[in-house]
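input
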Amino acid sequence: MYEVVYYSDNGENPILNFLLTLSDKEQAKILREIDLLEKFGFSLGMPHVKKMAGTDDLWELRIKHSSNNFRIFYFHFINNKFVLLHAIRKTTQKTPKKDITLALKRQINYIKGCDNNES
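output
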């Protein structure tokens, strides 16, 4: 079993905030995929997860609901922990660079915070 952690900054949780903008059915589908990540981790594989090209350690959880595609960007930390960083409704073929950049920034912030707070 893996641990899934939701990134937060100054009391704001971007993943939960994103989920609250969605319908109940969309929320349920996304939460089910997060549960699968927690249960299977690295063995989940495609079409559920995919490494983001051009990054060292950024992955995307891929969710399809009806005609909508959602992505949750995450990375593997230590002790079988996955940190969910950013979520989007994917509306174009290519993932917007600004969303990848934001996820990478949050990853750096998370790691820096852990360096200061954990041994």
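quick obs: Helices lie at 14-19, 24-40, 97-117.
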